[in-house]
Batch of 2 targets.
Target 1
Amino acid sequence: MTLYLFQVLNGLGLGMIYFLIAVGLSIIFGLLNFVNFAHGAFFLLGSYFCYQVVALTGNFWLSLLIAPVIVGAIAWFAESNLLNRVYNLPHAFQILITLGMALVIQESAIMVWGTVGKNIAVPDLLQGIVQMGDFAYPIYRLFVISFSAVIALLLWLLLERTRFGALVRAGSENTEMVSLLGVNIFKLFSITFGLGATLAGLAGVLAAPLRGADPFMGAEILGIAFVVVVIGGMGSFTGALVGGLLVGLVQSIMSSLWPPGVHLMIYGSMALVILIRPYGLFGRA
Amino acid sequence: MKIPRFLKGTTIASLVAVLILPFVLPSTSLAIEVLIFSIAALGCNLLLGYTGLLSFGQGIFFGMGSYATSLCLQRLDAGLVTSLLLAFVVGGLVAAVVGGLSIRRRGIYFVMLTLAFAQMFYFMAYTASGLTGGDNGLLDVPRPPLRVFGFEISTLGASLSYYVFVAVLFLAIFVALRRIIHSPFGSTLLAIRDNEERATAIGYNTRYFKIVAFMISGSITAVAGGLYAMFLNFAPLSNIEHLMGEQILFMTIIGGTGSLFGSFLGAGFLIVVGDVLSAIWPRWLMLLGFLLIAIVLFMRGGLWGCIESLMGRFRGHQNTKKDPPLSESPTGSLSTKEEAKNER
C-alpha cells in the first residue's frame, strides 16, 4: 500500500510540473492560435538558468525567482521581434520557425554548458524526508507539489479575476472583437507568450533538482506537454491541470507496473483523444 | 518521336546531377546517402508539397522499411528485390493505417496525430526488441547481390555499384512521381492542397485521395529506409525515431516544397553541409535552426524557389514569383480562429 502512496505522490509532483509546462502552451494556443514547438526549449532554459544561478550564488531560492523571469524575457523578446511576423502564415510555417528556435536554443545550451547533463542539489532547507509511521517521503517533492499548487491558484485568480485574465479569455473566444474594442492585441499576445514561457521556465527550475538539466530534455518534455494539452483540451486551464495530473499519475504508476508501456500508453491515449474527442476533456467544441 | 513532358526539364537535371554526384562529393558513400534521403524527401514532398499534409510520421515509414528489409534478408534469407518489395508493401500498409487515421482530423490536430503515431511506433520498436533488436538495432544486415530472374547483375559489393543501383531507383521514383503529379490524380491532390472544401464540393472523395497519397509516400519512404539499412549494414533504432521524420521534413522544406527536384537539393544540402560542418563545428545544428527561421521569414520556396526566382530574373521576367507552395491561402491571424474550429 505504501508503495502505491509513494507512486501516487510522485505522480502528483510530476503532474504538477507537467501542468506548469502545458498550461502556458495551452493558453498561447488558445489566445494566439499559435503552435509553439519551442516551448520545451523554455523548460530547458529554466533548468539551465537554475543550475547557473545556483552555481554562482549557491542560492536555490534566488534561482527560483530569477530563472523563470529571464526565460520569460527571452521569450517576450523572441515573440515581439520574430514570431509576430508569422501569425498570419499557415500553421506549418509557425511549426517550422519555432522548431528552428528550439534547435538554436538547444545548441546554444550545449555550447555554454556542454553535452553532459548537470546536477542541481536540493536546497538545504528542503533536504531530508518526512516520516509518517513507516512511510517516508522526500520533503523536496512535497514542496514541488504544494508550491506549484500555489502557482496554479495564483494563475487561476489571474485568469478569472483580473482585467488581464478577462482579456485573455475574451481574446481566446474572438480575437478580432477584442481588438476592435480598443485593446492593443499584439501587446496582449507578447505578454501572454512571455507568461507562458515563464511558467515553462518555472517548471524547469522545479524539475532541476529532481532530474538535473540535460540538453535534450526539451524535445522530450515538449512531447509530453502536447499530450497534456491535447488530452485536457487546447486553451483550457482546467484541462491542463487535469491532463497534467492524469499523465503524471499514469506515468508514475505504470512505471512500477510495466515500464516499457509508459510512453506507449501516454501517446496512445493522445491519439485516442484526438480521434474520439478532438477538443479534449475540457475544451469547448 | 515525341518525348513526354515528364522526361524533360528537371528529370534531365536529376540525371545530370546523379551522373556527376559521385565525382563532386568527397566520397561515394556520401553520394549514396544523399540519394537515399532524396528518395525519402520525395516521398515527404508528395504529402507536404502536393497534398498540403505536414506529417511528422515519415520516420515511421522509413524505420518500418529498414526493419522490413533487414528482417526479410536476415530471417527469410530472401533476395534484394524481394526484400525491397516487402519494404514497399509494408510501408504502404502502415501508411494506409497511420494516414487513414490521421486524416480524420485537419490542421494542427492532424499534425498532433502524426506526432503521436511517430512516438508510438518508436516505443513499439523499442519494446519489441525480439524483432527489432531494441536499442541495439539489427546488426549485420547483409547487402545481397542484385539478381533479376536468376541472373546476377551485380554483387553490389563496391560502393560505386551500390551507388548506381540506388541512382537507378532514385531516377525511376523521380520519373514515376512526376508522372503521378501531372496525372489527373496529381491535379486532384493539388486541388485538395489549395482548397479542400472546394475539392469536396466538386465531388471528389478527398479522404480517398489523401490516403492514396499517404500510401505512395509511405511506400517510397520505406524503400529509402530499406536502402539505408543495406547501406549501413545495420538497422538502428534511430531510423524510426521522430527525429528521423523531422530530418526528412527539414530536407523537403529546405529544398523547396512543391518541386521534386527541390527534394534532391534539400537532401543534398543538408547531408553534405552536415558532413562538412560536423567535422569542424559540432554545433552546426544551430545553423540549421537559423536556416529554418530564415526560410520561414524570407524564402518560403526553399532552395528551389531561390533558383527559380534567379532564373526568372536571368530571363528578364519580372514578377515570376509564385505563391508559396506550402500554403493554404495565407490568412490573417485575426480571422483564423473560426478556421481553427473548422479544423476539428
Note: Chain A has one domain: 2-276.
Target 2
Amino acid sequence: MILDSAQSVVIVPGYGMAVAQAQHAVRDLTNILEKKNISVRFAIHPVAGRMPGHMNVLLAEAQVSYDKLFALEDINDDFPNVDVALIIGANDVVNPAARHDKNSPIYGMPILNVDYAKTVVVNKRSLNVGYAGIQNELFFYPNTLMFFGSAKEAVNKLVNEIKEL
Amino acid sequence: MEVVSYLVYLIASILFIFGIKKLGSPKTARQGNFLSALAMFLAVVITLFDQRVLTFEYIIIGIVVGSAIGAFMAIKVPMTGMPQMVGLLNGFGGGASALVAFAEYYHILNKTNTLDISTGVTIVLSVLIGAVTFTGSFIAFGKLQGFVTGKVVKYPLQNPINILLLLIVLGLGYYVVANPTSDLILLAVVGISLLLGVLLVLPIGGADMPVAVSLLNSYSGLAASMTGFVLQNNMLIIAGALVGASGIILTLIMCRGMNRSLMNVVLGGWADAGSGGTGEGLVLKVMPNLLTLKN
C-alpha cells in the first residue's frame, strides 16, 4: 500500500480538516505511521484554514508536536524527496496553476509544491472549488490520487486499514 | 494612590508586550494568553479603584452579564467560527472606544465649556474609527455567519461615494474641533461613520472576510489608542497601539500569503474572478475505498 511503503510523508492540512474536526484522527494517523518508522511532517501554508495559525492551533490541540510543523518556506524545497504528500481538505494553497498559469486568478500566490512529491493523495469531500472559486489542476495530475470523503471519516478509514496490515 | 495606579498600568503594559511576544510561537502561546489576560485583569481592577466611579451597581451587572456571554462563547464557538467571533468582539471594542470618547466630550464640555485642539482631534478620531469598526465588524460577522450575502457587493460610483463620505466626515470633524460646543455635528460624525463602516465592508467577498476582520481588529486598536489619548491613559495608548500594529501585520501576512495587495482585498477583487475551467476531459483517479491504495 502506498502509505505503507513510503519513507517520507508530508501532510498538508486545510480548511476541510478544521470543518470536519479531523485533527485527532490525523494525530492517530501520524502516530501509526511513525510506529512503522515512516517520517511524518506537516506543511502549513500561511493562509491554510483562512487564518494564519489556524492549523497550528488545531494540531496543537490534538497534541501533534510543534517540531513536526513546517512553514511553507522551510519545507517547499524538500517535496521532490517526499514519497507521499497527503492533502487533507486543502485546495487553493496546493494549486500548481499559481506557479505557471498567468491567466489564473491565483497566479503568483505562494503555494506548497506538493505536486513534486512522488505520489499525491488528496482527501476532499467533493470536487467543489475552494476559497478562490477555481478548479484545481492538481487533482488531474498523473501522480495524484483522489480520496473523497469527510476528512475525519477518511483519515479514520486510513488508520484502520494500516492497522489491519 | 495615583502613583500606585500609574505603577500598575505600567506593569500591565509590560505584561501586554510580553504576552503578545509569547503569542508568536505555539509553544509559549498559552503562557502569552495568560499574561495578557492577567494584564487586562490588573488594568480593570486598578481602574475601578482609581477612576471616577459614580456607582458600582451597573459595573457589576455589566461584568456579570459580559463574563457570562464571553465564557459561553469561548466554550461553544468552534475553531472554524473563530474569525466571526473575533470580528464581533472587535466591533464591541470599537463601539466602546467611540462611546467613551463621546462621554468624555460631554464631560469636558460641561466642565470647561471648551475643548483644546489635541483633545478635540483625538475625540473625533476615536468616534470616527470606533463607529466604522463597530458597524464594519457586524457586517463582517454577518457575512461569515451567512446573515449577510457573502458575495462581492458592487454598485455604481461605489468608491467615489465612500471617498465623498470620508471627506464629509473629516470636514465635520474639523468643524467640531473648531467649534467644540456643536455637539449635533459630532452626532452627525457618528452617524456617517456608522454608515461608512457598512459601506466599506459590504464589497469585500465572504472568503476574504478574515482579512477584513484582521484589518478591523487593527482599527479597533487605533480607536482604543485614540481613546487613551483622550483619557490621558498611557496603558490604553500602549495596548491600543499593540492591537493596531499586530492587526495590520496579520493583515499583510494574509495578503502576502495570497499574493494580493490590501487594496485588491478591500475593493473586492478576487471573488469575482470566475472559475478557471471545470477540468472536463481530464482523467481523475478516484479511490472508492482505500483498498485500492494497495499496490
Note: Strands of chain A lie at 8-13, 39-44, 69-71, 84-88, 119-124, 144-148.
